[in-house]
Write a structure and sequence with these properties.
This protein has 126 residues and is mostly beta strands. It has one domain (2-125). The protein is built from one helix and nine strands. The strands form two sheets. Strands 1-2-3-4-7 form a five-stranded antiparallel beta sheet, with helices on one face. The longest helix is centred in the N-terminal third of the chain and has 15 residues, at 2-16.
Length: 126
């Protein structure tokens, strides 16, 4: 039990703190593996991208990241729109200026942007 708690605390700081050992946007590191989940492009060339980072340090922790990028832009701290724990998100463009992000069994939502680059971001958590 104590190992799991210590592992979760370490994983939190390694994956989420800007000055920690790992990329706070869900990049891979010695302790963490990345799995690309989905990428959906709008008719204007903007892209919603989701990925999951699983880290193993005295326990296992998994975090989901969703980005909204402009054409040719890489996922970064600037375009991170959602960071949470939960199942793989469902991403959908409902129009050129509105996107829907649905996450089942979501918890520990610690970043959620509702508008970026003129796009309204609608979230559903269940």
């Amino acid at each position: 039990m104590a190992g799991a708690v210590v592992g979760s605390v370490l994983t939190y700081f390694i994956t989420r703190e800007p000055n920690a050992m790992s990329d706070p946007q869900g990049g891979s590191s010695f302790f963490c593996d990345v799995r690309e989940i989905a990428s959906v492009e709008s008719s204007l060339g903007m892209t919603l991208t989701a990925r999951n980072t699983t880290c193993t340090i005295l326990g296992t922790s998994s975090v989901t990241y969703v980005f909204l990028t402009l054409k040719g832009q890489a996922p970064s701290r600037v375009n991170l729109i959602l960071r949470c724990d939960g199942e793989d998100p469902y991403l959908k463009w409902t129009s050129d200026r509105q996107a829907s992000i649905r996450v089942t069994n979501a918890f520990d939502v610690d970043k959620q942007v509702t508008k970026l680059f003129g796009v309204d971001l609608i979230y559903t958590f269940n």
